[in-house]
Amino acid sequence: MQAIMETAFDALYLVTVITLGIKMIVTCKGNSQFRLFGLMAVVLGAGDAFHLIPRAWALCTTGLENYTVALEMGKWITSITMTVFYVLLYYVWRLRYRVQGRNMITAAVYVLAGLRILLCMMPQNQWLSAEAPLSWGIYRNIPFALLGLVVIVLFYTSAKQATDKAFRWMWLTIVLSFAFYIPVVIFADQYPLVGMLMIPKTCAYVWTIVIGYCAMKKEA
Predict the structure, then answer these.
(1) What are phi and psi of 67, to 5 degrees?
(2) Using a CB cutoff of 8 Å and minimum separation of 24, what contacts does 135-141 make?
(3) Which residues, at least 6 apart from 97, have a Cβ–Cβ distance to it below 8 Å?
(4) Are 184 and 201 in contact (CB under 8 A)?
(5) What is the number of alpha carbons within 13 Å of residue 55 lying toward its C-beta?
(6) Longest dimension (CA), the chain
(7) How far apart are CA 86 and CA 148, in angstroms?
């Protein structure tokens, strides 16, 4: 039952975000903000596919324990693409609110993203092992959480100042995604049921993409 339900959910998620992303790229009418948002959605879905597809295959065949390398490699790739996702979302913020300058914020985004990717590439992560150390899972997610916090604050303040109804909940989708993700990083190995928080975390990302798509339908 888990295999069927989880595979169906993941398939629906991947198809939804990638389809919406492609539609945004194709139908944005040259609007660079929404073209970038569409690219961001495709990066999100394509990156997650590297982990979710092997996981679905494992669940539907001989079990997760027999696909450790493929699953951990998928997590590794997803960690990188999620970082790219937030960098792209930062540039969506700049385009939407016509931000000029603010070089210190841009530098902070790149430093945090670069540090996150560097930490993800360190061999101490033991990505291809079933016994990856929790400590490095925490280390690599510290700059990632700070990057998310920067984007949360930017969207919250800008949407409020501009009375931007279309993007008024963008900050909340990111807050929720991290609120559900962080307990999984810390506790999932010890308490496997905590891993179920990835479901609402995924829904928060779908909400993020839907916000952009609905805004495009009204504005582009």
Answers:
(1) -130, 35
(2) 137/185, 137/186, 138/185, 138/186, 140/79, 140/116, 141/116, 141/182, 141/185
(3) 158, 162, 164
(4) yes
(5) 20
(6) 53
(7) 7
For the stretch 108-117, pLDDT in tens is 999 999 999 9
What length is written for the chain?
Answer: 220
pLDDT in tens, 129-146: 878 888 999 999 999 999
Residue 168: how many other CB atoms lie within 10 Å: 15
Check residue 30 and give left, alpha or beta (phi > 0: left; psi -120 to 50: alpha). left
Sign of CA dihedral 179, 181, 186, 189: positive
The beta strand positions in 106-165, using DSSP E, are none
CA angle 127, 81, 118 (to 5 degrees): 55
> Which of 63-70's residues contact partners 24+ apart within 8 Å by CB, and which partners?
65/130, 68/128, 68/129, 68/130, 69/128
Separation of alpha carbons 34 and 214, rounded Å? 10
CB 163 within 8 A of CB 196: no
pTM value is 0.94
